[in-house]
Amino acid sequence: MRIDLHNHTTRCNHAEGTVDEYILKAIELGIDIYGFSEHAPMDFDPHYRLAFEEMEHYTRDILSIKETYKSDIKILLGYEVDYLPGHMDERVLNAEVDYLIGSVHFIDKWSFDNPEFMGGWKNKNIDEIWQAYFEATEAMAKSGKFDIVGHLDLIKVFKFMPKQDTRLLAKNALRAIKKSNMVLELNTAGLRKPIGEIYPSRALLEEAYALDIPITFSSDAHSVEQIGFAYEEVISLAKSVGYTKAATFEQRDRKLINF
What is the pTM of this model? Predict the structure, then answer.
């Protein structure tokens, strides 16, 4: 079974291609379960996400295409939600979806992974930035509001690496993820970024495996060409660490299947 649960649409304002084009490509690639997880609405940084008034349209789009292609592929409906205390909205958190991905893209409202704000890395202690990132990830897990952890070590995107062992920096976050019964996605988008590495790193994935944290797979596609990106590579990584099953969801209920 091939799974790809973290993917976007043009409604986030920074993706290309129609939902039909995405699904036809997924079918061509032999993907069995494909999830749309649009950037959820929020009263902060609105340019890079779905608008609140488009939630109904987004849902209708995905449910319609789910019916159209039901004999060819299983399509799931989700959201990628930015963990930003004081800005998350109950309309999103209580939406009728198959799953919610919780992601940390902001540290004190600084969009650390956005090239537009690269200047934020200057004159800062890299280890302290990493520590703050994983503290936010830990808090996200402890909130109990999400099913999947989005790109666990996204903080490495621009190759500003800490002096401390990343396993120690992520230790408490991983424990919180385990306690919250969340799933860790293996996200290949990092291979398209300066870091040139899957999220999370092999070292952190090994830590997750030791804690018996389940995984799933994501290409984080923002274009048709990115669907199923580096799938064989990410499968190989998962298997080499010891994983044989991956998670999928339906109406927030998790199921593990062989991959």
Answer: 0.96
pLDDT tens per residue across span 158-214: 999 999 999 999 999 999 999 999 999 999 999 999 999 999 999 999 999 999 999
Cβ-count burial 47-70 (b if 16+ within 10 Å, e if not)? eebbeeeebeebbebbeebbeebe
Candidates 156, 165, 166; CA nearest to 104 is 156
Q: Which residue has the tokens 């401390």?
A: 164
Interval 13-63: pLDDT, tens: 899 999 999 999 999 999 999 999 999 999 998 888 999 999 999 999 999
Tokens of 63: 């449910």
Kindly give the pairing relationship between strand 245-250 and strand 253-258: antiparallel
- Give the Cα separation of 154 and 172 in Å (integer): 16
Closest to 54 (Cα-Cα) out of 38, 68, 69: 38
CA distance 136 to 103: 10
Cβ-contact 41, 55 below 8 angstroms: yes
Number of H helices, E strands in the chain: 8, 11
Can you say whether the dihedral through the CA atoms of 104, 108, 109, 111 is positive or negative? negative
